[in-house]
């Protein structure tokens, strides 16, 4: 009879990890109701994770970058491939892209060529085992949606000058071919907010990209590149743009109303339905706003814009430090 | 035979939405306390691509906060949107105009299917006069019986603008949404009137 275990002293108590699993929403709410409001990760509601950046760590890409914010880490590689516009040269298969017949180039028409001839190809891949909930297989709807958003951001912000992607005939100054940029982002580790990290990695990789100097050779009717590394040229990316993502949780009117969480991690993204994404540009301007998942007010979005502007400065400093002013 | 459907034409855009639900859900998609929401968008030509997946994600974030999913737990609510025609007026904003129409048609189909909702969502496309920015705003327009009332549910803005311009655009968007909301209510009144004619003897 003496072997019976003693009854638990307090049957309603369990460790925090169990609480988090059993009632994730209540767990987050309790954290945010403490003074000062603290998230389970120890950050304040308006605190972003500190980013880190390395560039050109991949030797076979024309440009690359690794970005890490907290436990979210992504690698981006940019590779340029030549797209010839000449038809049927030397029995090679030439891909003709839509909207290419007879468009005259003008210096102002930036972005249109890139969009219409599909000169940038973005892809985001979630590495197997990057997170607990991600299983190997074809790209999930989530990965595809993030890819589409990155691609839209890239085209909308018009950062890449189309001039740097043109390959000309040196005698006639006619466009004979284009560089196509294949931008691949691989998520190594995912702890929420993959978009911000992926976008920053794309921007850093593009800024560190150097393409070989190429010209159209009339004699061979093909594109020729100078092999010397010293003649590689940067893309001349114009301006900066950084995204900032937010999750919003409603604690109820009497308990403090809505709380906006900057840079949500995996757990917070799982609990909060409402999301806001702001893409900040230079000079406190905004290039993109996306909001969905909950009923709110304009004031909420405006608050997110303010935080995104602050976040822009952090990224700007990091880019200036790592890439220098040349970038 | 779908549980609810709606067709909507706005200028060069024609969309058809159909709703099935609540129906049986695949075990892997089952959510213990809520209905699972499946949104499929079919393009007018070609096969579903990354673009449609992106649109599905946006549409989900727009309409999911208004659907009361806890009424039918462990079931499936299937939303299918067929793009019948969508002419590209300007390539840059093709997604925005499509999105605004998609929200309206899907909400009408949801009402037709009798899906429990907190309110209706109306969406409007707003473009800056100098074409520097384009916005889509989604406002909740009806909130009978302790619903959310009026509120900003959805924003998709693109271009280059600042805070002041955004707030101004959102005010225009709110007014437009209220107009669209009144139209939607009229359509539903007309539809219910026709359906219930046999009872009004």
From TrEMBL, chain A:
GO terms for biological process: exonucleolytic trimming to generate mature 3'-end of 5.8S rRNA from tricistronic rRNA transcript (SSU-rRNA, 5.8S rRNA, LSU-rRNA); nuclear mRNA surveillance; nuclear polyadenylation-dependent rRNA catabolic process; rRNA catabolic process; TRAMP-dependent tRNA surveillance pathway; U1 snRNA 3'-end processing; U4 snRNA 3'-end processing; U5 snRNA 3'-end processing. Residues 48-212 form the Exoribonuclease phosphorolytic domain. InterPro entries: ExoRNase_PH_dom1, ExoRNase_PH_dom2_sf, Exosome_comp_Rrp42_subfam, PNPase/RNase_PH_dom_sf, Ribosomal_Su5_D2-typ_SF. Pfam families: RNase_PH (PF01138). One of its GO terms (cellular component) is nuclear exosome (RNase complex). Keywords: Cytoplasm, Exosome, Nucleus, Ribonucleoprotein, Ribosomal protein, RNA-binding, rRNA processing. Coiled coil: none annotated. Its main location: cytoplasm. One of its GO terms (molecular function) is mRNA 3'-UTR AU-rich region binding. It is found in: Cytoplasm; Nucleus, Nucleolus. Belongs to the RNase PH family. This is Ribosomal RNA-processing protein 43.
From TrEMBL, chain B:
GO terms for biological process: nuclear mRNA surveillance; poly(A)-dependent snoRNA 3'-end processing; rRNA catabolic process; rRNA processing; U4 snRNA 3'-end processing. Residues 2-116 form the Exoribonuclease phosphorolytic domain. InterPro entries: ExoRNase_PH_dom1, ExoRNase_PH_dom2_sf, PNPase/RNase_PH_dom_sf, Ribosomal_Su5_D2-typ_SF, RNase_PH. The keyword Nucleotidyltransferase does not apply. One of its GO terms (molecular function) is RNA binding. Keywords: Exosome, Membrane, Nucleus, rRNA processing, Transmembrane, Transmembrane helix. It is found in: Nucleus. GO terms for cellular component: cytoplasmic exosome (RNase complex); nuclear exosome (RNase complex); nucleolus. The chain crosses the membrane at residues 91-111. The keyword Cell wall biogenesis/degradation does not apply. Belongs to the RNase PH family. This is Exoribonuclease phosphorolytic domain-containing protein. It comes from Tuber magnatum (white Piedmont truffle). The lineage of its organism: Eukaryota, Fungi, Dikarya, Ascomycota, Pezizomycotina.
């Amino acid at each position: 009879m003496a072997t019976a275990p003693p009854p638990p002293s307090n049957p309603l108590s369990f460790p925090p990890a169990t609480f988090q699993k059993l009632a994730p929403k209540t767990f987050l709410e309790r954290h945010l109701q403490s003074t000062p409001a603290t998230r389970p990760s120890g950050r304040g509601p308006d605190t972003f994770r500190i980013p880190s950046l390395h560039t050109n760590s991949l030797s076979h890409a024309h440009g690359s970058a690794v970005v890490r914010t907290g436990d979210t880490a992504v690698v981006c590689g940019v590779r340029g491939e030549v797209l010839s516009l000449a038809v049927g040269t030397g029995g090679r298969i030439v891909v003709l892209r839509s909207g290419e017949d007879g468009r005259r180039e003008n210096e102002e028409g930036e972005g249109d060529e890139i969009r219409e001839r599909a000169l940038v190809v973005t892809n985001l891949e979630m590495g197997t085992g990057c997170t607990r909930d991600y299983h190997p297989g074809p790209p999930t709807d989530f990965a595809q949606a993030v890819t589409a958003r990155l691609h839209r951001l890239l085209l909308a912000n018009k950062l890449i000058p189309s001039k740097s992607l043109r390959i000309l005939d040196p005698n006639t100054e006619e466009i004979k071919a284009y560089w196509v940029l294949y931008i691949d982002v691989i998520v190594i580790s995912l702890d929420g907010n993959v978009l911000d990290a992926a976008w920053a990695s794309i921007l850093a990789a593009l800024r560190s990209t150097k393409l070989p100097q190429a010209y159209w050779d009339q004699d061979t009717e093909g594109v020729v590149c100078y092999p010397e590394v010293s003649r590689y040229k940067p893309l001349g990316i114009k301006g900066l743009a950084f995204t900032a993502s937010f999750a919003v949780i409603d604690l109820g009117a009497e308990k403090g109303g809505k709380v906006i969480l900057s840079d949500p991690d995996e757990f917070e993204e799982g609990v909060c339905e409402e999301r806001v994404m702001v893409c900040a540009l230079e000079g406190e301007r905004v290039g993109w706003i996306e909001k969905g998942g909950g009923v709110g007010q304009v004031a909420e979005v405006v608050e997110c814009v303010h935080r995104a502007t602050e976040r822009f400065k952090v990224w700007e400093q990091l880019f200036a430090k790592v890439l220098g002013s040349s970038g | 035979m779908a549980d609810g459907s709606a067709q909507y034409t706005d200028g060069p855009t024609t969309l058809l939405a159909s709703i099935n639900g609540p129906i049986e859900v695949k075990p892997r998609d089952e959510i213990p306390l809520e209905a699972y929401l499946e949104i499929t968008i079919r393009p007018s030509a070609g096969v579903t691509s990354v673009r449609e997946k992106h649109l599905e994600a946006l549409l989900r974030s727009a309409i999911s906060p208004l659907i009361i999913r806890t009424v039918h737990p462990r079931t499936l609510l299937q939303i299918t949107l067929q793009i019948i025609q969508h002419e590209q007026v300007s390539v840059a904003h093709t997604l925005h105009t499509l999105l605004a129409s998609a929200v309206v048609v899907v909400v009408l189909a949801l009402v037709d299917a009798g899906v429990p909702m907190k309110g209706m969502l109306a969406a409007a496309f707003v473009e800056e006069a100098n074409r520097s920015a384009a916005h889509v705003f989604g406002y909740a327009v009806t909130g009978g019986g302790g619903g959310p009332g009026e509120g900003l549910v959805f924003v998709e803005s693109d271009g280059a603008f600042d805070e002041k311009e955004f707030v101004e655009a959102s005010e225009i968007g709110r007014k437009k949404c209220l107009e669209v909301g009144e139209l939607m209510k009229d359509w539903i009144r007309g539809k219910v009137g026709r359906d219930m004619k046999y009872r009004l003897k």
